[in-house]
Specification:
By secondary structure, this protein is α+β, with helices and mostly antiparallel strands. It is built from 4 helices and 7 strands. This is DUF177 domain-containing protein.
């Protein structure tokens, strides 16, 4: 029996940028309602209410350096209570679009310095800034975010006593007392 490889779904937020001869110096991209709904499904949040990015681009040798800011507003379910709450994200973008990514030894753990931009490989004379922005959003979403009703939900479930000290040290001391 052979396993069929699932096709990668088409990206929900495509914004192709011409890399050659020279990309635009500045780009602003934003997702429309259909794109935001598809991104919400992909990222497992209730809604992506707004998403836009402001990006400055410049040649960097054979690559294109793209820096800027991603602005997003989400509706997300609280990890504790399940209630919806609003989340506002402002995430820096630091991307380097390259025609050939760095070779990485699969046996060796690769770690990029935090101040280096993420490298995204592209082919031809265009790259997809939209998918890069969408992936940045995906990494910025906290899957265990707690809404304003999280503490009340814990108290209601009897998980937290309002008068008891909280934190790892308090837990360790409570265990010693027993």
């Amino acid at each position: 029996m052979t396993a069929e490889r699932a096709e990668d779904p088409a990206p929900e937020f495509v914004r192709m940028i011409r890399a050659r001869p020279v990309p635009p110096e500045h780009a602003e991209v934003s997702a429309n309602a259909d794109e935001r709904a598809a991104l919400a499904r992909r990222f497992g949040v209730r809604a992506v209410d707004a998403m836009r990015a402001e990006v400055d681009m410049a040649p960097d040798g054979d690559a294109i350096l793209a820096t800027g800011v991603l602005h997003a507003e989400l509706t997300q379910a609280c990890a504790v209570s399940g209630e919806d709450f609003a989340v506002r994200l402002e995430e820096p973008l630091a991307l380097r679009f390259v025609t050939k990514a760095r070779e990485v030894d699969p046996e060796e753990e690769a770690e990029l310095p935090a101040d280096e931009p993420d490298e995204i490989e592209y082919a031809g004379d265009m790259f997809d800034l939209g998918e890069a922005v969408a992936q940045t959003l995906a990494l910025a979403i906290d899957p265990y975010a707690e809404g304003p009703g999280a503490d009340a939900a814990r108290r209601e479930a009897g998980i937290v006593d309002e008068d008891s000290p909280k934190g790892p040290l308090a837990d360790a001391l409570a265990a010693l007392r027993k």
